[in-house]
Fold Amidohydrolase-related domain-containing protein.
Amino acid sequence: MRSPARCYDAIRAYLETLPLIDCHDHSSQAGPRPSDPIRAVIDWYMQSDLHSASSDGEIKIIFDSARPLEERWPVLERAWQRTRFTGYAQVVRRAMRRFYGEEELTLAALRRISEKMIDFSDERNYLSVLDQAGILVRLEDIGAAPDAARGKLKQPPRSRLIIGLPPYHAITSYEEVQANAAPLGLTVTSLDEYLEACRVLFTRCKEAGAVAFKDQSAYTRPLDYTNPTRAAAEEAFNWIMEDPRRRLSYPEGNRPLGDFLFHQFMRMARDLDLPVQIHTGHMAGIRNEITKTNAVHLTRLIELHRQTRFDLFHANWPYSGELLFLAKNYPNVAIDFCWANMVDPIYSQQMFAQAISSVPHAKIHGYGSDLPGDALICAWAHADLARDNMAIALANLVEMEYLNLDEAREIARGWLFENANQFFGLQLQPEGTTL
């Protein structure tokens, strides 16, 4: 993709020189070498588009690696031909071209790929792809908070820890409470003890290098957090503590307790000076209910916790206007384009441009791969696509004389590096950021 604007090539070339801060990823580990060429090039997200273009039965056939490749290919080919122009498909095609020299997804191409699949358990291969993508640091949501609390944190190269919040507020049973406190060697008997255990655990995570909290509860409940009383929360907590066989329903039965805990955790985030990343908008997979994930549901939470910084994910696709409003209206809100660049490239291009005219440009975080470690080549391709999206938006604004070329470069550096470096307190030095 490219813009017809005369300055496009200059801006795109400049973007290629800038390092990336990957604001959201899930690479707990990489490798071993894949055994299935289909899975080697088609990541989780492309699987969703293929599923949307086929059926439940056909998607099982496509990814059943026990079946011969020749048996699965006709089913895959039909689905691929129906969906090969989406943003996810853009990522797959770019990754195949870059790392396997294949221009099109064909049976012959898959056979050739099967002979040279990359082993990312070899750290040299892993780092090579990060270098090619220009990824300097990755913020990793890998469920590692318990290990960090125990002092046993192990992460892939260039990773910074993100503390996942849902396990700590979506509690429904005695066993879940005790499991959360177990890394501290504690047995919890009251709500006060549980809150203190969480505070200690989160503090240890920060001491181990955590740079943010992250919450993806939008997958399972609406984002409209209420502000219940402590008494209501304690009643629900005591009910499950009195009998280990009891379990709160989720999300409704947990809501007085879960919402109360969420507010408490926002205060802990404030005290620890850690931003809170929140999943908004589109969800992975298919057959999801989207209205519950609209970032506008967070308005009361954002309004109350004015000293807590919020990084709102996925450009809130498809609700761009609501997120632009929140970022414009609230000093403690930033927009994060993680995942969005491949969910919908055209949406991202348009929203990048609109964000410049409506939101302080320093509040935009332009890239997050949002992929597991076995999709590392797709992380490179996603970064390549994100640079295209930004270059198109910036070049069009220069062409219409809204910006000049130097201003476009300044914004680009902020989107890819400076804004996230400051927001997450990464303390990366400018002299070490040119590749």
